[in-house]
Amino acid sequence: MPRVLTETDVADFRERLCAAAERLFAERGPDAVTMRQLAAELGVSPMTPYRYFQDKDDILAAVRTNGFNQFAAALETARAGAKSARAKAAAVGEAYVRFAFDHPHTYKLMFDLNQPIADSHYPELEAAGRRAHETQTAWVKDQIAAGEMAGDPEAIGAMFWAATHGVVVLEMAGKLPPGAARQLHHQISSTLAKGLKPGA
User: Fold this and answer.
1) What are the distances in angstroms from CA 108 to CA 64, 82, 116, 142?
2) Is 108 in contact with 172 (CB distance < 8 Å)?
3) Nearest in space to 193 (alpha carbons), one of 83, 79, 76, 86
4) Helix 56-80 × helix 7-28 angle, to 10°
5) 58 occurs within a structural domain
6) CB burial class (10 A; 0-12, 13-18, 19+) of residue 149?
7) Are residues 72 and 39 in the same domain?
8) Residue 43 is part of which domain span?
9) Rounded-to-integer distance, Cα 171 and Cα 167, Å
10) What CA–CA distances, in Å, run from 59 to 65, 133, 160, 166, 171?
11) Could you tell me the pLDDT band of residue 113, with boundaries at 50, 70 and 90?
């Protein structure tokens, strides 16, 4: 008869399993990883992960939820720690690039398109995705309020996000030399900002 698990036991094992899954998913792709492999990675029986998660998609959703929340927290902290609107924009952009390269496995899985964020099966993932999305428009609203930019904050945020994500992924794929993503991010952001100034 299996022992009764405490909340701490469950939380600890889920955390260990998510950490192992994050690495294997990023290395091999979620489709190539099995629940049996995840169990072997932790040295437990093949059925043990099913005591904590319904299936592999459930684990992937948990990993991505944690990722989006960590990402959002990093950008929120950066924005809160800067004073002017312009400084907030720079701090958020720097935090974005730093997070991506400090947590490459997490970053890749956050934007895995095989599992949509807007999925009613995973409300926690959906909420974390919304929180992360809000970090992409909050600093733009600061800029607009300060008269530094004009336009739709959602559209502007999407432009900056697409540009930053693009250079990050290119460097991660070895298409850009190390450090190029950060440099290009600064150049692109500066160019976009100039074009978005009121009256530009």
Assistant:
1) 9, 28, 14, 28
2) yes
3) 86
4) 90
5) no
6) buried
7) no
8) 1-53
9) 6
10) 10, 22, 30, 27, 27
11) low
- For 146, the 3-state DSSP assignment is coil
**How far is Cα 54 from Cα 52, in angstroms, rounded to an integer?**
7
Whether residue 104 is predicted with pLDDT greater than 70 in this model: the reply is yes
Nearest to 79 by CA among 155, 152, 157: 157
**Beta carbons within 10 angstroms of residue 1's beta carbon:** 3
Asked if 8 and 72 sit in the same domain, the reply is: no
Can you say how many angstroms the Cα of residue 167 is from the centroid of all Cα atoms in its chain?
15
pLDDT digits 0-9 by tens, 43-95: 999 899 988 899 988 999 999 999 999 999 999 999 999 999 999 999 999 99
Same domain, 33 and 103: no
Same domain assignment for residues 89 and 179: yes
User: Distance between CA 195 and CA 149 in Å, rounded?
Assistant: 9
Residue type, 8: T
Name the amino acid, one letter, at 21: A
Question: Would you say residue 2 has pLDDT above 60?
Answer: no
- Shared-domain flag, residues 143 and 85: yes
Instruction: Please check whether residues 67 and 40 belong to one and the same domain.
Output: no
Judge whether 200 lies within some domain.
no
Question: Please, which pLDDT band fits residue 170 given cuts at 50, 70 and 90?
Answer: very high
